Inverse folding.
């Protein structure tokens, strides 16, 4: 009974919005302390930040232990990818700040900021959507590579003698096309080739239309489509959790009412016994 009561207390702490808000606050403080190390600080402040880092590391370890103990065993805990992610980050934070490992330790502590993603459901949803959209985006990227290769080969054939630095071979031409797709001084490149080939503007405009307008929007559409699905799943999970909370509250209320009825029956029986005597 004590173990069950302890488990319910740990679950309440883990699911408490106040506790989760405090964890987010500590993550932000951790991020600010890592950024502070990049400045030239007085010795007393460096020592204070060192103590703060130890306190933050201990708190993260404590918070992870609470979450583990509040779960339904090791399988349940590690079945969630975000728990594995947090465990890796917390273990990485245990590397001491000092000696030859100071650079590695600071580098690993930078990634503690990513714990903000695991703590905020909306951010988790965005990351999940991005990961699920990668296969679709991969096919779009493959098609983009084909277009880049075709236009790169054409550009190298026609414009290599105009500017060998930009169009010398297909690989260099593809890098130039990437620069054009980002609109980085692309008009100067176009005017240079138009001096020799007046109709070369068609080459640039069709390429920009395909890559920047068509494929970029396809990428955005793929991500938005998956985000819509993830948002729907998150809402359904919230509804299920709300229903469970309502059911648990209703069950608790029913038990309380039953206990009151039992006590009233006992009191009634005692009063009747006294009256009879």
């Amino acid at each position: 009974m004590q173990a069950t009561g302890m488990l319910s207390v740990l679950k309440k702490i883990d699911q408490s919005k106040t506790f989760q808000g405090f964890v987010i606050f500590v993550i932000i403080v951790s991020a600010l302390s890592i950024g502070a190390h990049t400045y030239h600080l007085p010795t007393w402040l460096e020592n204070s930040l060192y103590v703060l880092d130890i306190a933050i590391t201990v708190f993260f370890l404590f918070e992870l232990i609470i979450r583990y103990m509040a779960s339904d065993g090791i399988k349940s805990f590690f079945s969630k990818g975000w728990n594995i992610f947090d465990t890796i980050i917390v273990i990485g934070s245990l590397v001491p700040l000092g000696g030859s490992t100071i650079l590695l330790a600071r580098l690993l502590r930078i990634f503690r900021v990513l714990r903000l993603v695991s703590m905020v459901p909306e951010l988790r949803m965005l990351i999940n959507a991005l990961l699920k959209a990668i296969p679709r985006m991969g096919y779009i990227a493959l098609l983009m590579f084909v277009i880049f290769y075709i236009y790169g080969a054409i550009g190298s054939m026609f414009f290599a003698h105009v500017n060998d630095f930009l169009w010398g071979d297909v690989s260099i031409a593809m890098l130039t096309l990437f620069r054009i797709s980002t609109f980085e001084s692309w008009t100067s490149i176009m005017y240079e080739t138009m001096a020799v080939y007046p109709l070369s503007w068609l080459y640039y405009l069709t390429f920009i239309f395909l890559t920047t307008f068509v494929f970029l929007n396809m990428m955005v559409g793929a991500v938005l489509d998956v985000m819509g699905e993830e948002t729907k799943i998150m809402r359904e999970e919230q509804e299920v959790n709300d229903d469970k909370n309502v059911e648990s509250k209703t069950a608790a209320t029913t038990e309380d009412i039953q206990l009151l009825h039992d006590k009233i029956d006992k009191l009634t029986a005692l009063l009747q016994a006294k009256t009879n005597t």
About this structure: The chain is about 85% helix and 0% strand.
